[in-house]
Amino acid sequence: MIKVGIIGGTGYTGSELLRILAKHEKCEVKCVSSRKEKGKKIHEVHPHLKGFYNIEFVEPEFRIFSECDVVFTAVPHGEAIRYVPELYESGVRVIDLSADYRLSKEKYEEVYGKEHSAYIEAVYGLTEINKDEIRGARLIANPGCYPTGAILSAAPLAKLELIERVVFDSKSGITGAGVAPTEFTHYPNLHESIVPYRITEHRHYYEMEQELRKFQEDVKISFTPQVFPGSRGILTNAHIFLKGDLEGEEIERVYREFYRDCYFIRLQNDIKLSYVRGSNFVDISIHKGKDRVVVVTAIDNLVKGASGQAVQNMNVMFGLDEREGLDFPPLFP
Amino acid sequence: MIKVGIIGGTGYTGSELLRILAKHEKCEVKCVSSRKEKGKKIHEVHPHLKGFYNIEFVEPEFRIFSECDVVFTAVPHGEAIRYVPELYESGVRVIDLSADYRLSKEKYEEVYGKEHSAYIEAVYGLTEINKDEIRGARLIANPGCYPTGAILSAAPLAKLELIERVVFDSKSGITGAGVAPTEFTHYPNLHESIVPYRITEHRHYYEMEQELRKFQEDVKISFTPQVFPGSRGILTNAHIFLKGDLEGEEIERVYREFYRDCYFIRLQNDIKLSYVRGSNFVDISIHKGKDRVVVVTAIDNLVKGASGQAVQNMNVMFGLDEREGLDFPPLFP
Amino acid sequence: MIKVGIIGGTGYTGSELLRILAKHEKCEVKCVSSRKEKGKKIHEVHPHLKGFYNIEFVEPEFRIFSECDVVFTAVPHGEAIRYVPELYESGVRVIDLSADYRLSKEKYEEVYGKEHSAYIEAVYGLTEINKDEIRGARLIANPGCYPTGAILSAAPLAKLELIERVVFDSKSGITGAGVAPTEFTHYPNLHESIVPYRITEHRHYYEMEQELRKFQEDVKISFTPQVFPGSRGILTNAHIFLKGDLEGEEIERVYREFYRDCYFIRLQNDIKLSYVRGSNFVDISIHKGKDRVVVVTAIDNLVKGASGQAVQNMNVMFGLDEREGLDFPPLFP
Amino acid sequence: MIKVGIIGGTGYTGSELLRILAKHEKCEVKCVSSRKEKGKKIHEVHPHLKGFYNIEFVEPEFRIFSECDVVFTAVPHGEAIRYVPELYESGVRVIDLSADYRLSKEKYEEVYGKEHSAYIEAVYGLTEINKDEIRGARLIANPGCYPTGAILSAAPLAKLELIERVVFDSKSGITGAGVAPTEFTHYPNLHESIVPYRITEHRHYYEMEQELRKFQEDVKISFTPQVFPGSRGILTNAHIFLKGDLEGEEIERVYREFYRDCYFIRLQNDIKLSYVRGSNFVDISIHKGKDRVVVVTAIDNLVKGASGQAVQNMNVMFGLDEREGLDFPPLFP
Fold it and tell me: Are residues D67 and D162 in the same domain?
């Protein structure tokens, strides 16, 4: 059994790791940290998990977590830096769900506006794209929720260097904003609305740029996020303007080929966030119009967009079947 | 492997059986019927299940379903009568999710306003209450969604004959109204509303009466259902007026004792439909006031209120662990 | 033109007063206070009101507000006490939307757990019940949101002393919890849920008791509130157990007679929160069952349950038509 | 008083006309048609309007409606053709809310796939753009809901011929799909989802093309609609790629100038559908990024996107203040 630690167990990505790992047959959660809830049982903070864990929240101490085989850091960006290097040095594998290791040092410092005091090169954990590097990795930078769907929707065409311009227009459930109540997450502020934010300058843009340019250097990318009235899910419309022209069927073939061995990618005619809810699937549907191709992707932001992909990465790192603990159907409706 | 058939695979209870049974390790779904979708693959009708089944919908023919060990009839009331007797006679075990076998013949005919042409005595499949009878049963009448939570919330006190009067005020997600679009399920008719219906005369009342009177003959019951803006879940407030007086702690002890060996019953301080969503759990919280006890129950109407309990009943019938296929955490948030 | 002041202009009841008074033809809003937003234009805090006001938030100073003919205090309970007495003494009429003047001094101190340093006897501003006293009043205690619907649903039968027991089971939109983000108002905590709270001991109970006992001294009252996933509205089921028996038609006649001259009371067959949304109407529907009468009321908690009723009270106080500024249709759907 | 008729009074645009016109002081609704509900009072079909009308639904007979000064045809496309020509010939002014007169005859026949048996040239009723033509018009083609926000968001830059390419990504409330229950409007199919449809080929595209090309012939337009979980509102992101470069401030100035005399256009920093709900306002916010300008518009699809704009057009046609009957604040939250 793989011994697992979770630093940051009270946020949504932490609780989602707990939900998924509760039924993972090859690993066991040994320790979960929370400064604030230290000493409480898991289900006292997460009543939905009552019956699944019998451990208490602990302080995020190196002494405790260094006994694990792998540690998930599910903390805000800027905070992972405090835990990752020491664990990494001691040989513990780390899967960081924050933004701290996703970009180059320079880009990180520019985008997040602070010095990166403890940079380590990590593998960008978009499993379907980087599976080979993940296999041998000791530190995974788990992708942002928006980049996951966005990159997967454009990568097959970018690989063929066919994209003139892509506009990603994304709609996320509000859990992406975290577990702490704010004006943004206040019910009446979202109800009967759909709220765009950081309309031309969201930080996740730089992950899209970084990964898609590996395929096609001159790709032009635009990105606008918004939240819709719902808890989970990110739907992304990739409006792709092609350099040349391809038939709809050719494009489908390109995607089918690119994702041939990818269990969690499903090409669908009919797409709906509730068709992937609670699951690690990425549903993709392709629509060829006269002016452009629209590739629509649907993911659960807390699963494939965060904790599910983190577990998938753990599986790959440890040579397990990537589906382990993740092979259950979505919850519809 | 238990060979399973599902008659009625396109409605919500049918699709929920498919979701749950996809990961049940002791049985295999052999045939699923739909007159309308006959010949289509499961995922063509249920895109969320893509990747989990490789069979096609078939006609609900006796020839096909009589080869199963157990058949779930997930059809509207009045229709189950067409399938149940023949299967039952041939020795196939049947779990009927409709209302056709829940009441006595006389009561059924009075309440549902039609003659029951093919009555068989069934075991009322409220697993926590009737586990012993379920074990040997050949026909299970799976309980209605409202009665499941309501009966479980009052049974411990009824067993002690302590109830003067109980008022059940229930709020259900709209999936209880079925998969076919109607004025009732039309989005703008439910949005920003909470809609009471059959306010003093819902048919599920008679199941509550039937089961609670087995415990306490003179119990007075009132029931009002309503739908709230959400897909899944039933929250029931049982306003219980007691004959004598009990301390809050005594009442908690009564419930704890009554549900001692019941894995799916969880006594909770904090109750929320989203804490049980997608799962077979029944969360119960007890509130002792000056005038009455309010026992609040939360279930997922499609799981414990229908298909999950049906699988739990199958497990008990076949001598399996009742948790088989059902032992996964709820999806919060 | 009546000169109006609003103390507390940033909360939901304050902004709703501003929405309604924007089109009131017999009064003008002269000053609106907010310590926090002092100096900002109204629409900088309430973007939906852009174009309707050209004034700035001010400090809640006596000097300013004492120039008004009437002041609405739309602040949390405990805070109104700081403004009401001085204004009252100076001859300004006051309509207090907080709980500070709704109960007797003794009851207030018991229920709200603090000494009432500046008690004045006010008229309880349930317009349909106390119109005559409101006419001459100088201080109105505007009713709580839950009591408004609850009292109106039981008053006609209480007046005839026919009620044995009434159980109020109420469902409110989340705006009742105020404008400040909390765990309670955090979107994912309400989504796909319906959340009961203060299940046997909500403070609004005492308003119901106080007002209904004026009609029938021995009435037994129970009350449980909950929030549903929506912004506005309170639906209350009054489960009324009668002393004797009345036919459904007789009961309807009692209500029709009792509310004969009440423009804002509508007896409806079909009831839905969205049929009253944004309006000052109280929709009532009556359902006679074998065991009890269920009287269902629907109001908009921010209008008839707060600011709309406050304006209605102002109209009555100043001898205007009670409909002035309030006579517009609800927003459905 | 202007005598108003409404052909098609049971759909959402019909009921919204009734809501708005109930308080319009310069006109009176004389007749409202519904074949199906003929003989019923208005509030028997629209309970929210109880107290506002005392007329009955009638057959849509020429004899009746030809006595009106203006008739609104609020029927599905293809059906308006049956009423408009005869009324038009007889001198009644007509405001058609269907799609039947929005495009040229040729375009209509191509896009809607049927012959137009009774074509008349109408004025495209986007009030802010075509006010002068509307003034003298006898037939108004009221714009589609999506084109209203989309065209208004790009027109100021198109007029300067500055647009290289614009991608409209729109999100609509479900009332846009009409009052009849369908799979699309079935609550569980929209809940926790956001559903794109007609992703590259929606008919409203042609209105955008027609109107924007009047300003700039070579503008490249792409359009994708989707529905979000809510009743009302359309939010449109116009991702505009400019030919040259403009500063953010210059762009704001362009918009401010273009909409100088337009009461219902509000430039906002903070944009939210609930800030315009129930009102005729168009909120616009402008975001200049490195790669493009994103102009976000928010409207209520049933008001500015349909019935409100229709009333605004009536006001202009009859020489009234365009705000008559429409000058009330939005309902937030």
Answer: no
